[in-house]
Amino acid sequence: MSPFLCASVEGLVLKETSSSLKDNSINTFDEGQDHSVWNRFYKKRSPEQEISMYDFFGGRHLLLRHVCRHGKLVEAGCGLGRYVFYLSQFGIECEGVDFSEDSLQNAIEFGRQHHLPGSFLNADILNLPYESNSIATYLSLGVVEHFFEGPQKALAEAFRVLRPGGIAIITTPAKSWVRHYYDSRFTLAVAKRKLLKQPIPENKFFQYWYTMRELKRFIIDAGFIIGLSTITDYIYPFFEFGTIKENNVPLIVKLFATLERHLYIPILGAQNVVVAIKPSDTMYCFISGKREAKMDDLNEFYLPISKSMKNHSVAKYYRKPARRCFPQRPYQWNTPRISPQERTCTITGKKYVTDPIFEDYGLSLDVSPEILRILEYNIKISFEEIQLRWRR
Length: 392
Hints:
- By secondary structure, this protein is of the alpha/beta class.
- It has one domain: Rossmann fold (3-Layer(aba) Sandwich), CATH 3.40.50.150.
- It contains 12 helices and 17 strands.
- The relative contact order is 0.15.
């Protein structure tokens, strides 16, 4: 997931540009696709650090609930590969694609060192090296907003590679309260300079801040059907604003984190999340993995679930109307890492040892790796047993 960098109003350098704020009178240098910018960023981190942060960037519960368990998952713009590694633990075939050779080399070495499943490709997400109609899940986590010309080409390529009934999960930064605050300051600063006839410095484009309506329109225009859309992560705006310093999480932030579990207030959230389907007369069923779901099945379910699977134990989670998918468990704040320790699997009663990298997999119950890979269990767990964990 891409970093969210704050605007500098005093120097009039706005690295995040709202689609509605773009001012053609200001010269713009495109940093969104600058390899050196991303290489510098990823040199400051490691895959293990990003994995251990868990829910510093929100939305993990939404990903786990909606990625296909059958077929290949591709994360387009995977960075250091934390979700490639994490989702692979759930028995999902994952591959990460990125244009940053440095980040991919880091991810490959990390996976090799720890014997982790998951593969990586150095490629352009506008020209993916996959056959048409071949991919089950396409992940784009904070990526498409970095194209100065807009997300259309990236979304068209996602549509091409996805199989019928394939799932695209697209996230972009949302227009939260803190973004409205920075946009207002920037607009006033530009107006002041124009009034005083002062020069306006170069605007360094980094990313757009699409509204949910804008993002959904782009996705629909690419040919997708929207299954679910929501705005999540009420915590990150406080970090962006500077309220959270070091590892100290103020009470006000914790109160808003509790609010996120019960109320949907879009202006509080940092991320737009859209779960979209590639439609076809006959589609791959989300549960069975067979090409047996029909378009009329989307009248009952918001994902393609065939009539033969409608009474499956996990089908109930995907019935319409689509729920907002609130997190179920309260956050844990800056908890120490869990060293490998013996535990008893809640489901089988057998002993196992927690993972040295993924700890307890960010779950609220003890589950062995073998059980984690079984569809019936990992879908139920993703709706009922995700333990939110915020670490810096």
